[in-house]
């Protein structure tokens, strides 16, 4: 059995101002805290300090998030450390709020950009899958046609672009944009 590591920093004291500000924040957000779990981004000295503040106020519905793979599966005091991907899954429950110290804001922005790229790629894949299904249905529908009608053509062709006449060759370019994708 793999032993879990406690990554807590030896924080033995905090300034009175920091603790008072934290308690004021907790009071102002009491309703939100009662119905949510808190993800502390950053399993370092500031995160350790946050966890001690939470413990002192008897709030224990917290976990840590860190981008350092070495810390995943470990803990700070009794609170687990998870990966950003695990946090993302937990957030989808709608019952998690993220606490970020200013030291980690740049890292968070980079992570959010990566998530957006991945979500955009997933949307493109989904859109392409939908186009494939639509194409299959149309091809199946018309695989035994005897006569080509305007309605059938309209289902296959999005638009026809006709270019200007080239006076030297007396020709023009015609471009056809199809509704469907090729199914090879």
Distance between the termini: 51 Å
Q: Major sheet: order of its strands?
A: 3-4-2-1-5
What is the strand tally?
A: 7
Helix content: 40-55%
Unreliable stretches (pLDDT < 50, length at least 5) are: none
Whole-number radius of gyration? 29 Å
Sheet-strand content, in percent, reads 15-25%
- General shape: elongated
Structural class determined from secondary elements: alpha/beta
Specify the number of helices: 6
Question: Mean pLDDT score, rounded?
Answer: 81
List the helices and strands and how they pair.
Elements (H helix, E strand, L loop, with lengths): L15 H13 L1 H5 L2 E5 L3 H12 L5 E4 L9 E2 L2 E4 L1 H8 L4 E5 L4 H37 L8 H7 E6 L11 E5 L6
Parallel strand pairs: 1-2, 1-5, 2-4
Antiparallel strand pairs: 3-4, 6-7
Can you walk through the features of this model?
Helices cover 45% and strands 17% of the residues. With 184 residues, it is an alpha/beta fold. The protein has a five-stranded mixed beta sheet. The mean pLDDT is 81.
Task: Provide tags for this entry.
alpha/beta; five-stranded mixed sheet; 6 helices
Could you give a quick summary of the protein structure above?
With 184 residues, the chain is of the alpha/beta class. The protein has helices spanning 16-28, 30-34, 45-56, 84-91, 105-141, 150-156, and strands at 37-41, 62-65, 75-76, 79-82, 96-100, 157-162, 174-178.
């Amino acid at each position: 059995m793999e032993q879990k590591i406690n990554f807590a920093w030896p924080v033995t004291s905090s300034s009175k101002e920091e603790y008072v500000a934290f308690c004021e924040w907790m009071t102002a957000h009491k309703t939100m805290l009662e119905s949510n779990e808190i993800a502390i981004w950053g399993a370092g000295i500031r995160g350790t300090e946050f966890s001690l503040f939470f413990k002192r106020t008897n709030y224990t519905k917290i976990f840590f998030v860190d981008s350092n793979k070495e810390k995943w599966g470990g803990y700070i005091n009794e609170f687990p450390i998870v990966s950003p991907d695990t946090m993302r899954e937990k957030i989808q429950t709608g019952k998690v709020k993220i606490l970020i110290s200013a030291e980690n804001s740049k890292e968070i922005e980079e992570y959010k950009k990566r998530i957006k790229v991945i979500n955009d790629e997933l949307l493109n894949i989904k859109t392409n899958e939908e186009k494939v299904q639509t194409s299959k249905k149309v091809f199946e529908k018309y695989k035994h046609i005897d006569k080509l009608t305007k309605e059938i053509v309209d289902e296959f062709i999005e638009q026809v672009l006709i270019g200007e006449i080239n006076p030297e060759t007396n020709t023009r370019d015609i471009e056809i944009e199809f509704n469907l994708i090729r199914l090879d």
